[in-house]
Design a protein that fits this description.
The protein has six helices and 14 strands. With about 230 residues, the protein is α/β, with parallel strands linked by helices. The structure holds nickel (II) ion (NI) and manganese (II) ion.
């Protein structure tokens, strides 16, 4: 699989020729100013929850590309009201077979209000299973024992986990999350974007290394094979 990082928690994975974008937040991310949001092509957008730092560019990308947007029932209804009609509502615990593979919605311990104050339903993570491999994006979340269920559903090739602390897991909890989901290759997200979530990248890599794991921190705009 190929993964491109667009800053904060926004990344795109390509599976079977299908482009899948997660949590687009580019226009308002100072660190991603070299990314032209209007150049991003995608077949799908998956939204983990309704906070602005995960959906700020979702409506514009969806309207320009006509891609399918997958999110909670409540965010699906909100998107429909914004004029985005190509949506697929899901909710925690449910799974669906798409043309690239199967996605199961997992528990995330967080909150999910939309920018205009609308209720966004429950925050979620996503477990992707495909012929090219499996991965888990936890979304914004605390460390939770529910993560121990993940390896009972799929053997992961990589996990995408927040590491910035304050709003989500810190590095130490993300190392434990990697243990819970039984995955030694982790892409770190949700760090350094704002003052509250600045981290020391070398210390973060060392913490994962000390636990026999690899922390990948691709540069914004970088594509990696994973
Ligand atoms: Ni959030
Ligand atoms: Mn967030």
């Amino acid at each position: 699989m190929k993964l491109t990082f667009y800053g904060h928690s926004c990344f795109q994975v390509t599976i079977g020729g299908k482009k899948i974008l997660f949590d687009p937040f580019i226009t308002y991310n100072e660190l991603a100013k070299d990314i032209d949001v209007n150049q991003i092509e995608t077949d799908y957008i998956f939204l983990s929850h309704g906070h602005a730092d995960h959906i700020a560019d979702a409506v514009s990308i969806a309207q320009r590309t006509g891609c399918k947007v997958v999110a909670s029932w409540e965010i699906h209804e909100w998107l429909n009201k914004q004029g985005v009609g190509n949506t697929h509502p899901m909710n925690t615990g449910g799974k669906w077979k798409f043309d690239f593979g199967t996605v199961k919605c997992t528990v995330a311990q967080h909150s999910s209000g939309l920018p205009d104050g609308s209720y966004g339903g429950n925050p979620m993570g996503f477990l992707f299973s495909s012929g090219e491999g499996n991965f888990y994006y936890s979304g914004d979340t605390a460390l939770t024992l529910d993560m121990q269920l993940i390896p009972t559903w799929a053997k992961l090739d990589f996990a995408v986990l927040p590491i910035g602390d304050n709003f989500t897991m810190d590095v130490a909890d993300a190392v434990r999350a990697a243990d819970f989901v039984q995955c030694s290759t982790v892409v770190g997200v949700h760090y350094n974007t704002f003052g509250f979530i600045r981290i020391n990248e070398a210390e973060a890599r060392a913490a994962f290394g000390a636990s026999g794991k690899q922390l990948l921190l691709p540069a914004i705009g970088e594509t990696i094979d994973i």
